[in-house]
Design goal:
This protein is 36% helix and 16% strand. The chain is built from 8 helices and 7 strands; from the N terminus they run αββαβααβαβαβαβα. α1 packs across α2.
């Protein structure tokens, strides 16, 4: 009930509906990877998924942001079931990949942002290596590119309250790591898969 209400409010706020290009909603385990410009990115993408997919899709989010205050931890744990990861003091014990692999093996899809941080430009910046390692260790999981637009204007950096504005969520055809594809080549291909959705 709470999750449906929050999803409805998010979609009403940003006016975003998912536009599926070359693929369709599926209950199979997937990794949705997107450009990152706003703290609303993960939750808006989650909200635009069909209701039956939301409980099985976990946003990968920064622990330092989503554990502050009272509202954020409640939303992260009880509504979005976010997988909170350490960004600043990553150790062997707190390797973010371990939690992601465990979630995938438990049947959850993930939402993640391979740029590693928020950047205001239209074109995604070079991707960090996490997506490559996930693709290599779970080759049967489809990697679904997503392009998010205008969400940084909905919740500008440093702001607390969102500004109503029309945002867009474009979801593309899944990709997979090629048998002999290098990390550099794969990460650039994945980045372009996201960027090309903006151009389509």
């Amino acid at each position: 009930m709470t999750a449906a209400l929050v999803a409805g409010l998010l979609k009403l706020l940003c006016g975003a509906q998912a536009r599926w290009l070359g693929t369709a909603p599926s209950a199979e385990v997937r990794i949705y990877f997107a450009n990152h410009t706003s703290n609303l990115d993960a939750v808006v993408l989650w909200a635009t998924l069909p209701p039956d997919l939301r409980p099985k899709t976990r946003p990968v989010a920064a622990k330092d942001y989503w554990t502050k205050g009272r509202v954020r931890p409640f939303l992260a744990q009880k509504v979005f079931h976010a997988l909170l990861i350490e960004r600043h003091k990553v150790t062997v014990r707190e390797n973010p990949l371990e939690g992601m692999l465990a979630a995938l093996d438990a049947g959850f899809s993930l939402i993640l942002f391979p740029e590693g941080g928020r950047f205001p430009g239209l074109e995604p910046r070079p991707f960090k290596s996490g997506l490559f390692h996930l693709a290599k260790q779970r080759p049967n999981v489809g990697l679904v590119p997503v392009y998010l637009e205008n969400l940084n204007r909905l919740l500008p950096k440093g702001e607390v309250l969102p500004v109503p504005l029309l945002g867009s969520v474009t979801i593309g055809e899944p990709i997979r790591l090629g048998p002999a594809e290098t990390k550099v080549d794969f990460l650039e291909r994945a980045r372009l898969a996201v960027w090309n959705l903006h151009l389509s």
